[in-house]
């Protein structure tokens, strides 16, 4: 156990998870100028016409408002997926809304897309591009809670944010915006993806799906992605399932509703990845996310067909040295 893990173990029982996160992002911004540049032990990845310095990215939700991109690049990440950003700024759900399940190396969140909104994030990304982000920057967009017309809402975000993104991800898989996951059905998804494609033009476009789709649902999204000329799929988001957890039932119950992330997602995320790769062959970029917490697991995903990998919860438990450790392990594997 390193110093961060020891500290985390003590802090975890006393400080609300969201406050720890806020402090972490602020510290990252402050430390960016003095962080050493990442080393290049792992082979770069060419995908979607982009060059990723390495295959390990930060999953959406960690840097929702594009505040810490350069710092995250310095920690070693080959990509940062900012967002989810919605057309309008919104506060998200009431706190507390982020919980730790340490016995499972998992988190439960019901953040509800708290973010500064497309206009503010677009301005930040424009400034970032001027200075050089130091990494590939994806932008993940979602539906505003109060939007009555989902297509128009996503269209606005795509128009405003697309010009500042290396790639765009349409998120239809978070469990914390009522009705959002219904957009994963092909009838709803088709016009949505067409509208976003129309706005972003040649910018690579991906869709992000949940771990909770059944096999037919995964196949349907894969087929639609191919039919609509998408560039890739990000799989998976969190799960609403609570099966086979090591945490005591009262701890799980106290966390309440929301998306479960971390180690319990390993099985579902692997299964969805295998199914997608079998279905689409080499035609799409697949970004595997869910429970990756070591170089060995990252390697396993790459060997199972992932083009790139991402993590959130493993990074939270592992701390600032975690990306470099994973990259070291990857290089040695
Ligand atoms: C606190 C928290 C907030 C998240 N917010 C978003 C989000 O805004 N958009 C999104 O697409 N995924 C979001 N996610 C899901 C992650 O991007 C990722 O798909 C999921 O956590 C599984 O990966 P992991 O096991 O490495 O955490 C969030 C996850 C967590 C833990």
UniProtKB/TrEMBL annotation:
<keyword id="KW-1003">Cell membrane</keyword>
<dbReference type="InterPro" id="IPR012135">
    <property type="entry name" value="Dihydroorotate_DH_1_2"/>
</dbReference>
<comment type="subunit">
    <text>Monomer.</text>
</comment>
<feature type="binding site">
    <location>
        <position position="176"/>
    </location>
    <ligand>
        <name>substrate</name>
    </ligand>
</feature>
<keyword id="KW-0560">Oxidoreductase</keyword>
<comment type="similarity">
    <text>Belongs to the dihydroorotate dehydrogenase family. Type 2 subfamily.</text>
</comment>
<comment type="pathway">
    <text>Pyrimidine metabolism; UMP biosynthesis via de novo pathway; orotate from (S)-dihydroorotate (quinone route): step 1/1.</text>
</comment>
<feature type="binding site">
    <location>
        <position position="140"/>
    </location>
    <ligand>
        <name>FMN</name>
    </ligand>
</feature>
<feature type="binding site">
    <location>
        <position position="171"/>
    </location>
    <ligand>
        <name>FMN</name>
    </ligand>
</feature>
<dbReference type="Pfam" id="PF01180">
    <property type="entry name" value="DHO_dh"/>
</dbReference>
<feature type="binding site">
    <location>
        <position position="262"/>
    </location>
    <ligand>
        <name>FMN</name>
    </ligand>
</feature>
<dbReference type="GO" id="GO:0106430">
    <property type="term" value="F:dihydroorotate dehydrogenase (quinone) activity"/>
</dbReference>
<feature type="binding site">
    <location>
        <position position="84"/>
    </location>
    <ligand>
        <name>FMN</name>
    </ligand>
</feature>
<feature type="binding site">
    <location>
        <position position="64"/>
    </location>
    <ligand>
        <name>substrate</name>
    </ligand>
</feature>
<feature type="active site" description="Nucleophile">
    <location>
        <position position="174"/>
    </location>
</feature>
<feature type="binding site">
    <location>
        <begin position="109"/>
        <end position="113"/>
    </location>
    <ligand>
        <name>substrate</name>
    </ligand>
</feature>
<dbReference type="InterPro" id="IPR001295">
    <property type="entry name" value="Dihydroorotate_DH_CS"/>
</dbReference>
<dbReference type="InterPro" id="IPR005719">
    <property type="entry name" value="Dihydroorotate_DH_2"/>
</dbReference>
<comment type="function">
    <text>Catalyzes the conversion of dihydroorotate to orotate with quinone as electron acceptor.</text>
</comment>
<dbReference type="InterPro" id="IPR005720">
    <property type="entry name" value="Dihydroorotate_DH_cat"/>
</dbReference>
<feature type="binding site">
    <location>
        <begin position="312"/>
        <end position="313"/>
    </location>
    <ligand>
        <name>FMN</name>
    </ligand>
</feature>
<feature type="binding site">
    <location>
        <position position="171"/>
    </location>
    <ligand>
        <name>substrate</name>
    </ligand>
</feature>
<feature type="domain" description="Dihydroorotate dehydrogenase catalytic">
    <location>
        <begin position="45"/>
        <end position="331"/>
    </location>
</feature>
<keyword id="KW-0285">Flavoprotein</keyword>
<keyword id="KW-0288">FMN</keyword>
<dbReference type="InterPro" id="IPR013785">
    <property type="entry name" value="Aldolase_TIM"/>
</dbReference>
<keyword id="KW-0665">Pyrimidine biosynthesis</keyword>
<dbReference type="InterPro" id="IPR050074">
    <property type="entry name" value="DHO_dehydrogenase"/>
</dbReference>
<feature type="binding site">
    <location>
        <position position="208"/>
    </location>
    <ligand>
        <name>FMN</name>
    </ligand>
</feature>
<feature type="binding site">
    <location>
        <begin position="237"/>
        <end position="238"/>
    </location>
    <ligand>
        <name>substrate</name>
    </ligand>
</feature>
<keyword id="KW-0472">Membrane</keyword>
<protein>
    <recommendedName>
        <fullName>Dihydroorotate dehydrogenase (quinone)</fullName>
        <ecNumber>1.3.5.2</ecNumber>
    </recommendedName>
</protein>
<feature type="binding site">
    <location>
        <begin position="60"/>
        <end position="64"/>
    </location>
    <ligand>
        <name>FMN</name>
    </ligand>
</feature>
<feature type="binding site">
    <location>
        <position position="291"/>
    </location>
    <ligand>
        <name>FMN</name>
    </ligand>
</feature>
<feature type="binding site">
    <location>
        <position position="236"/>
    </location>
    <ligand>
        <name>FMN</name>
    </ligand>
</feature>
């Amino acid at each position: 156990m390193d110093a961060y893990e020891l500290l985390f173990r003590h802090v975890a029982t006393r400080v609300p998870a969201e406050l720890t996160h806020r402090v972490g992002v602020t510290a990252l911004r402050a430390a960016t100028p003095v962080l050493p540049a990442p080393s290049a032990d792992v082979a770069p990845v060419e995908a979607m016409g982009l060059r990723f310095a390495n295959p390990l990215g930060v999953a959406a939700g960690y840097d929702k408002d594009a505040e810490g991109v350069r710092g995250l690049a310095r920690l070693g990440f080959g990509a940062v997926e900012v967002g989810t950003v919605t057309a309008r700024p919104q506060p998200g759900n009431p706190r507390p809304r982020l919980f730790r399940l340490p016995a499972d190396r998992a988190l439960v969140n019901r953040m509800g897309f708290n973010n500064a909104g497309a206009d503010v994030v677009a301005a930040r990304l424009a400034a970032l591009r001027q200075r050089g982000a130091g990494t590939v920057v994806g932008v993940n967009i979602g539906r505003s809670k109060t939007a009555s017309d989902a297509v128009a809402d996503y269209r606005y975000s795509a128009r405003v944010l697309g010009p500042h993104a290396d790639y765009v991800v349409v998120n239809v898989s978070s469990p914390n915006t009522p009705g959002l996951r219904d957009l994963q059905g092909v009838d709803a998804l088709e016009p949505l993806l067409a509208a976003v494609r129309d706005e972003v033009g040649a910018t690579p476009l991906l869709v992000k799906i949940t771990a909770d789709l059944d096999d037919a649902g995964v196949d349907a999204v894969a087929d639609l992605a191919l039919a609509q000329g998408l560039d890739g799929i990000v799989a998976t988001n969190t799960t609403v399932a609570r099966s086979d957890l090591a945490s005591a039932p009262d701890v799980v119950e106290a966390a309440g509703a929301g998306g479960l992330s971390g180690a319990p997602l390993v099985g579902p995320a692997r299964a969805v990845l295998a199914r997608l790769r079998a279905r689409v062959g080499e035609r799409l970029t697949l970004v595997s996310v869910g429970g990756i917490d070591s170089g060995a697991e990252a390697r396993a995903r790459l060997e199972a067909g992932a083009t790139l990998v991402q993590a959130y919860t493993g990074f939270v438990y592992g701390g600032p040295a975690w990306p470099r450790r994973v990259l070291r392990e990857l290089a040695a594997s």
